[in-house]
Amino acid sequence: MRVLMVAANPVKIPYPVYPLGAGILADAARRAGHEVRLLDILAANNFSDEYDPGLISQAICDFQPDCVALSLRNLEGAEGGVGSLELAQRIAADIRAATPAPLVVGGAGFSVMPEAALPYLGADYGLAGEGEEIWPAFLEALAEGRTAPGLLPRAVPGARQASAYDEDLVRAYAAQGGLIGVQTKRGCPLRCLYCSYPLLEGRRVRPRPVDEVLD
Question: For all residues of the chain together, what is the average pLDDT?
């Protein structure tokens, strides 16, 4: 299958953040044999404050995807700017207008409140939680016609895949003083009221192998 993955995160304050989660899942889909293109809205628009809907229509016209995935990293936006959820709704509408391909939404932001976000965004499918295992399995089921639209059961925290970086995207973010993250663990047993990490990654700390992190 041809899979277009769209990373939608307009937040640039205090710095733009590399789309690590979307990159990991794009790589997971490639490992499963799918042809994948990752479109990072922020970088593709030269880190402008104005969203250009032509980015979506052009990418879909060029790639002709069988499935489009929208990765929502944040729910909120920068102060005085367009909220991430509001922007994601606009992007989802542009995707709908450009292709009849199934629209799937996921990501850390979506996973905080998937039951409310899925109908708000108007997507066919919602994937909440860690996606290294459920995303390739979903694509296989979709290709074989074994799926029904709606919110999939939240993925149980499980296998961790090594971080995957796109060299062009890394250079683009580095040129903006952006943060290129290296994830060393997942999960947290603490109960800080402001933090969503235990919800997203579970309460058991799962460190990555040291040699993998160093690499």
Answer: 91
